[in-house]
Amino acid sequence: MKVLFVHNNFPGQFRYLARELASRSEFEVAAIGSRTATADAGIRLLKYSGPAGEAASVHPFARRFENECRRAEEVLYSLSSLAASGFTPDLIFAHPGWGETLPLRTMFPKSRFVVYCEFYYGSEGRDVGFDPEFPMTGLDGDVALHIKNASTLLALAESDVGLSPTAWQKSTFPKEFHRKIKVIHEGVDTDEVKPDREASIVLPSGTRLSAADEIVTYVSRNLEPLRGYHIFMRALPRILELRPNAQILIVGGDGTSYGAVPPPGTSWKSIFLNEVAGKLDLGRVHFLGRLARPDYLRVLQISSAHVYLTYPFVLSWSLLEAMSAGCAVIGSDTAPLRDVINVDNGLLVPFFDSQALALRVVEVLSYPRRFKKMRSEARRFVEQSYDVQRICLPQMMKLVR
After folding, report:
1. Bridge-partner residues for 14, per DSSP?
2. β-pairing, 215-222 with 247-253?
3. Residue 398 in contact with residue 161, Cβ under 8 Å?
4. What is the pTM of this model?
5. Contact present, 221 and 259 (Cβ < 8 Å)
6. What DSSP state is assigned to residue 331?
7. What share of the chain is helix, strand, coil (3-state, %, to 5)?
8. 346 close to 324: Cβ distance less than 8 angstroms
9. For the segment 193-232, what is each residue's pLDDT rounded down to a tens digit?
10. In the beta sheet, which residues pair with residue 29?
């Protein structure tokens, strides 16, 4: 069987499935991605160039779709090259978020087509309009948001099956498509991401920290409001005041992955750090930036209390990995977390209540034995529901068959 993956940042959500298929002799695997894509041995990877040309003359509503069409043209060249080499896929897995799916059905009309249904934009009950500090800008903003779904809708209409990682993310899609969308998460490698009470890290200052220390952790790809960075920073003064030995480890970049963009020349990291800097012992607040995976996992393994906050948006891998590492998770009481956090395996607080967050973190730090079972339940939950080898990959392989 010939299988094609199409993903701007390949392997992305397809990393475990693509690796599994490539390891089996009955599958021939190819992938198409942008210049940043990477692939394991056994996967033929074709890279395309980014969209070229100027979209400024295009109507603002259509600029995103214009860029998606330009990207689709580049993908079409890669598809033509693949077809010319004799590779016609029996099965295609694709992420529609960047327009790459637009030429797939035309190019390979007889292939089975699985589209990854990560998120459907909307102005109610989702990320946009959730935070009053960052309101949506009028009717034009609402229309532009609606149009962001164009490529995803076309892909879903043309697909044989939709694939969504969580029940809530599936629920964001129009109801008429729900019968088409299966819920299968890409999975967590619980053999890799596991508790290790012997783990330690060395800070840039030379200080070594381990699980014997009192450590609060926060992880996000980038430090930004959509992932509650501003709420976390506002909770820190109270946490540091009540726990004089606590060390704060913050993992994430200075850019913007999602949501509102900061004013020119600034970053959300600096804006919200400056807001509370005068109330913090900055010697105990450590910004680690983006870490290599082994270092990131060690941060989770030494965590005393792990904070994960998010708008109603895509659930981060980092939350499930924190649970798999046996972290005591204090999360936001928002829709994505209700899929995975229950009364036994974590704690939820109102997203905007920074003081409630602070007090919950302090409680976990103050009474570690009380939350020992919660940590083990978090680990057990991921093993039973999201383990890649035992749960998610078998479900994916059943879908492939």
Report:
1. none
2. parallel
3. no
4. 0.95
5. no
6. E
7. 40, 20, 40
8. no
9. 999 999 999 999 999 999 999 999 999 999 999 999 999 9
10. 3, 43
